[in-house]
Each structure stands twice: as C-alpha cells, then as structure tokens.
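Quick review question:
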C-alpha cells in the first residue's frame, strides 16, 4: 500500500465511523479534525481514533487500552489480537457507554 492508498483508506474509515455513530441512535458526540476523530460519551469519557500515517495505521485509544490497526484485504485489523475494527469499536463503545451499542459499517 502506498501513501495515497493509505490516506484514502484511512479517511474513508474515519468518515464511515462518523456516519455509523450518527446513525446508531446512541448519545455519543463526535468531532473529526485533521485525521483524528474524538468520541465523547455522557460519562465524559472519550475514545480517540486517529491516523498514524508514517506507520500506515489507525490507532484507537479507549479509557481501558490502546490498539493499532493495519489495513489488509479491504479491512482494518488489530495488530495485537487480529480482531476487525468494526467489532472492536462496537465492544469498546458499549463498554465505555455502559450500554450495548452496535457500530457497523453503513
């Protein structure tokens, strides 16, 4: 993957996450600025999702831990555990919001 392919994939996933949050019917605020998306919950906790262009990764920081995702076969996978980004986000958002929330690609 070259830089332009990475940038396109990273921007697409950040926009898709924004759209998924907007459409999930949940009470989560979000703000996207310069390759970083911040999700803010009612309990004031945050999840930060951002591009790491030099490594061609997406990093996700929750109040519990951080994960690095790489792009492979049109999906983002956790470098640590191999899990897929959308499943990870559903679990992380649910845990942090303290309610079941399903985040899916639209």
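Suggested answer, residue by residue:
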């Amino acid at each position: 993957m070259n830089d332009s392919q990475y940038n396109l994939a990273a921007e697409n996933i950040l926009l898709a996450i924004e759209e998924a949050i907007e459409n999930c019917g949940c009470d989560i605020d979000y703000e996207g600025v310069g390759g970083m998306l911040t999700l803010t919950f009612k309990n004031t906790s945050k999840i930060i999702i951002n591009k790491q262009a030099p490594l061609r990764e997406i990093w996700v920081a929750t109040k519990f831990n951080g994960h690095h995702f790489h792009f492979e076969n049109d999906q983002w996978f956790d470098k640590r555990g191999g899990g897929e980004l959308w499943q990870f986000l559903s679990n992380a958002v649910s845990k942090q919001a303290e309610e079941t929330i399903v985040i899916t690609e639209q």
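Why it works: The helical segments are 3-23, 85-97. Residues 3-97 form a domain with the Metal Transport, Frataxin; Chain A fold (CATH 3.30.920.10).
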